[in-house]
Amino acid sequence: MPASASFLDGLAAGLIEITGARDNPENLAEALVFTPNRRAARELAAALYNAIKETLLVPRIQALGDIDEGDVAAAFASDELALPPALPAARRRGALARLIQHWREVSGEPDLPPASALAAADELASLLDQASIGDAADWSALEDLSLSDSLAAHWRLSQQFLDIAVKAWPDYLREQSSVDELQRERIAAEATAERWSGPKAPRHPVIIAGSTGATAATRILMKAALALPRGMVVLPGLDPDLDAAGWQAIAEAPSHPQYALFQTLRYLEISPQDVRTWPQAIEKDNAQARRRLVNEALAPASATKGWNARLQRLAQPGDAADLVTHGLAGLHLIEADDEAEEALTAAVLLREVLETPGKTAALVTPEAAIGRRVSALLKRWGVEAGASAGEPFSRTRSGSFLLLVMRWVLDPADPVMLLAVLKHELCAVGREGRDLLDRVSRLERNALRGPRLDSTLAQLADRITKGRRRKENHPPSGNPDQAGEDAGWIARPDPEGARLIADLDRLVAPSAAALSADPLDGANAAMVCAELAQSIAAGPKSAGGDRVWAGKSGAMAKQFVEQLHELCREMGPVARSLWPDFAESVAASMAAAPETPEHPRLAIWGPLEARLQRRDRMILAGLNEGAWPKATPADAFLNRSLRKRIGLPDPDERIGLSAHDFAQMANAPEVFLLRARRVDDKPSVASRWLWRLRTLAAGGLGDRSKAEAALKPGHDLDALSWARMLRRVEARVDAKPPAPRPAVNQRDLSRMSPSRAVDLIRDPYADFGKRILKLERLRAVGEEIDARERGTAVHKAVEIYATDRSRPLDQLIIDQLKASGASPELIQLESPLWLRAANAWLRWADARAAKVAGIALEETSTITFTVSGIEVALSATADRVELLKDGTLAIIDFKTGQPKSAKQVLLGLEPQLALEAAIGERVGFGSLGARPASELIYFQMSTSAATDGEKNGLPLDFKDADKNPIPTTEVAGQALEGLVRLVGKFASADQPYLSKPRVFSVKIFSDYDRLARRGEWTVEEGEE
User: Fold this and answer.
1) pTM here?
2) What is the DSSP string of 72-117?
3) For the stretch 733-747, what's the b/e string if a residue is b when 16 or more beta carbons lie within 10 angstroms of its beta carbon?
4) 3-state class of 154 per DSSP?
């Protein structure tokens, strides 16, 4: 069947004519037809119906090789054969992994992680399968290899390792009275061939159609079929124009699309010239030109030097330019800028087909990501066309839920994983719909955001029962060093949330024993996790939680659990910490069929699924080197030389089969070839097939620009321009700096704090977001403690140490950090640094002791003043206030971050300490009384090395432009006057709340920067 013909349509027409099915339908029913896979079998049945358009008795159509078929051998005979059972795939993987681990143990090597052992088992299984696919693999050749110095140590090790394939694995199969599945397929083919050669030989038509004969089993069956009275083999896309020299070149080029066909014909002892063209395969002139052009473009590298001459010979009686022109008619090349544009172009091409009644189209790509992307893009037009290759099991509803449960159950109180489970669409915990969503939402906001505080679900339930939330109208200070600013917390019990967590804890309890062991009994753990997932999914609409196993993803979930169970039975225990990764590695090789039905006119296929099929428009996407064709994988065990000695297939044969698929599809009447110039944000290289096609076309037309023009779609099919128009923004409105002006009575100016004063100076828009919009940044779930928790922990530790010195200060800090949710890893990392900081503080405090007469810690004081008719209360909580023996005050602030400079304080940009000094001078702090301040001090108490520096904790030195000292009382007075002026400005309705009018550093990111859209209208520059 020529590549330019629609294989299944032509085959159907021929079968009807050969059997006389129009007059005698029962003749067709007697036939036995083998196709490469089940999809081709289904499409052939449809093609037969479309061809006859009346009563149809469908022949028996069986798949030669179907990856979804559990018993491949069933396709080879009309009645049951006495065959040994095939070892189930999961047991095979597990047994190979166990043999690999045993070999490492004997060799003195440490065990591989289970996932790595499984990957190694898959590599070894692939090698065993290649030996079964080929005709003459001889493992005994390994024993005869010369271990000369030229043989690398790696390959010597491989030789020893492959004793598993040569000796251990066959012994294991004999013990199990089983065979490998591909080995069973070959045995079945041999048994069928023997049966067909005897008295039971079928008298009805037996047709093997569409296979290249790439496996030994298929070639055996082909040979047996040809010996039958009414046997026939229909080859796909054999090139009839090749001469003896051409076939000789192909015999030495495994990557050529005709290589597998040549090997098949050689096995069948048939010359290519003796193969006849299928009578119903009628080629039009353009179709013949396309076939010859594509075949010649994919010629072996050794034959490319004679391209132009052969092109001229193939074009006779015309010339090469005519052949190329006719061959490229209907063949279009589109190069998108990136993967997103490529997918959108493909989606537009599919969508445009629907404008023509009855017209069909198919996207074919080996890149599953492109297929999923195009499927998602089609939904914007209300078109449901799922990729027939399916979806990775881990992304399906049931698969993602099972894998989540398997990871979460090892640490049920982990807030991130807990929320992932609770928010999954299959989770119910006895509840349903809005009720569950509302409870989970409250739980997330009130108990799970921020650092992790609980190690068990029971502790979490207890904390939720007590609850904590911020007082109404008491927004956070945003200042990590102002612990007192964040004291506005009250308890708020959440009994419904606590019950949800308690119910979840009860569901987990039965599995605790099975999942607490280390290592885990993986087979048991798989079943326990499956039962737990089902229990969690149980709700009002699914009392037993059976919806986990519903639909196609649910069916795949059952297979996954069974496979995991079988694997672990063979492999043995799995380290508890590696269990989730191992389960995910098992799931990685599984895909679930699409839940939605196929679109009647559009399809998204992989190359294997597209084999033998054709639509009115074929879109071949992902045509980049390394994607299509995929790079030949490096053999983990044998180099090419050793593979050749053993008789294993050449790795490039995979490229040859891929090239054959490409050639078949590129011969459709209307074809679009798509690629992206950049993939994963890196330049890509066009597929070798595109390069060859371009080069050959340029030679035939005599000019590369003419070839490019011939390959470019016409204006009426310029899908790339259509895609770019869809992405183009016709009009753009630039964002402007925000300048909200709320009413004065909404500005809440009656309450002030030093930290709020800093906001109004540095970033008024942040104050607008907090006070007027009432917006507060949500903490990330389970995040590490931030500057606020650090500051609170340090302040609290110093406060406790002042009255109780039974424990070291550094230990008090560590205890407070733990209570704030610091992780054990962070505590271990920072403990020595906090010891250094604590010692620095103790030295500093001891050095000041002689001049201090009294101390007030974490005391809050308030003064009032009136501005524009508004009575303003300025409140501040001072970390430490010292009464010096000279009767003045020292205002000290502990900084876990970078201390402020004297210049910043003097300019009024950082007025915190100065305002506290003004308050101290007027009303005092605690029992110290109202006194002027003579020292303003920042003490940096952090993990930074600056904590131990000589300048840490020294009073700020204020000087004017002439370097003359400025009294601290004057600085305090100026700060208070500045605050009065600042409040006065914002007491005017005309004063806007600007975003960072005095930005300090581009590295300081405010929680409200994105709300202000700063990235759209400014390039930030630090300034003072």
Assistant:
1) 0.85
2) GGGGG-SS----PPBPPHHHHHHHHHHHHHHHHHHTTPPPPPHHHH
3) eeeebbeeebebeeb
4) helix
